Amino acid sequence: MNYIYIDGPLETVRALVDVPDMILQLKGPEDLGDGNIRVSAYATDEAITVVQARGVTVTVVFDNDEMAARTKELFPGDQGTSVT
Amino acid sequence: MAYPSKVTEIDQRLTDLATQYSAICTRIESDQTTWEDRPMGFLQIGTGTGGGRPRILIVAGVHARELAPPDALLTFVSKLLDAYQNKKPIVYEKFVDTRPVDHNTLYKRFTIPFSPDVQDIIEKTELYVLPMANPDGRVYVETPPPNGFLMWRKNRRPAPGPLSCGMLPDLDPRGGLVRNDGAGVDLNRNFDVGWDFKNFYSDSFLTTARTAANVGLGVSDDPCDWSLFHGPPASSAQVSRTREPETQNIVDIIIEKKINFYMDVHSAAGQILFPWVVAVNQETDPGNSFQNTDLDQPTGPGRDPLASPAPYQEWVPPGVTAQHQALGDLMRDKIMDSTGYTADDAASSNPLVAKIATEARKNSRYCAIQSLFSDAPPDAQCRLPSSPTLDFETGGSDDFAFSRQIGKNPGSPITAKALDPVFAFTFECGRRTDGGFQPKAKTEYPKIEREVGMGLATFLSFAAGLRAPVPAPPPGPSPTP
Known about the structure:
The complex is a heterodimer of chains A (84) and B (481). Helix content of chain A is 30%, strand content 36%. Chain A has 84 residues and is α+β, with helices and mostly antiparallel strands. The longest helix of chain A has 11 residues, at 64-74. With 481 residues, chain B is an alpha/beta fold. Chain B has a single domain, classed as 3-Layer(aba) Sandwich (Aminopeptidase). An eight-stranded mixed beta sheet of chain B has the order 1-2-8-3-10-18-11-14, sandwiched between helices. A two-stranded antiparallel sheet of chain B has the order 4-7. At the A-B interface, helix 1, strand 2, strand 3 and helix 3 of A face loops of B.
């Protein structure tokens, strides 16, 4: 999972709510002043591919490794295992 | 106490504070424990009750995955109690932001004076603090997969029967997938204003809101919705609806203590939000109110906030929206000033000073706006676009607290009427540049903690200066048409 910024036209960005495997944070968008807004999201690699195909710009702020390290720092302890 | 505190640590801290500052701080147990039988303690702070004191409730931790608010709130409360006991100011130490690539940004030390602020807050208000409003959800966040989920938002109400909801998204970096067990209710959709949204709104609005480009409807009646489920309907014909125990505990404080200043601390949109979120505010037609059940479906037409040419708009007593805007703007300005940089610094002829001051103030800018417009991008002066996007939600906690100032005139047609004023806000602390829902302890969280401290101190000092009943809004039109 990745923590990302998404830059694009407001209507294009808002339409991303239907992308699965992503938490899109529309509250508190930033006006970039060039006709685009910036929002943030938590997204899988697959979701990022889908989002990019919609023509918006994605910046990966924290990739999966960084998110894992961050989470381990916040919640040190056992790591989980997959559901079978 | 190291951030992020675990649920058990927050609970213990309440006990410790009540012990250490017993003359001015009492721990109270909420009537209901959670679905997983956890207590929901809260603090009562002040030198007394009654006597026309403003009655304030500050809540945090409603959304489980938002890590910063409970700790930031309790840090402020600890500082407040310590400052009063020792007759000294509240101090927030400097924070050096090392994240910019080409320079460090110093957020300067700031203080909140003992007199009048600390003293007035303790001696002139009746303050209640509930820092962990969703302990079950937070424990689920603390627990790694497959028995927990980092991105969980709701409480942990058991699923209303066998459900096949599939898997949660692969969004927990601790590894492993987690079943969506259909459990949980979004507590911030579970309060009583518009809760039954499919009858509150009209069918035509609900259809349009799901498809229109600049409109959102952030609530769901599907238990498999792992973010926005508003809760199940009434459990029996004898009750009109079923509130979650966590919701009920907050409602009990609001009603029993007659709360007239309410703050719900969330993260991480960097905003100060005020009601309504169910529709655009208006001050002229008290017949257009949540109180007017004649408008509810199925017997009534339902409300259509997008109808043309006469959209449904929600009544607010005259002057109240402006009062909220003014207090929200004051909080915004105080938080920006707490960086230690003024607007003049941002215009300095020294390019580095100007750059750092501009950056610090921008990174600590919390626009105060009506919740309905929380998805709209404000400009640098926090002005909204001329046709802002509309993010409709129902069942919000701040809308409920706010609604307590709106009564119902007897007779028909049904119209609302103004009662004693209530100030209600949601404080979305932190922002996307501060680590989102999971700010790091040393490099991101301290900035948020400072901002929460200054925001809450401003809110409380304002309340302390307004001995209840707060000034009535200017007279409006007759409530009876």
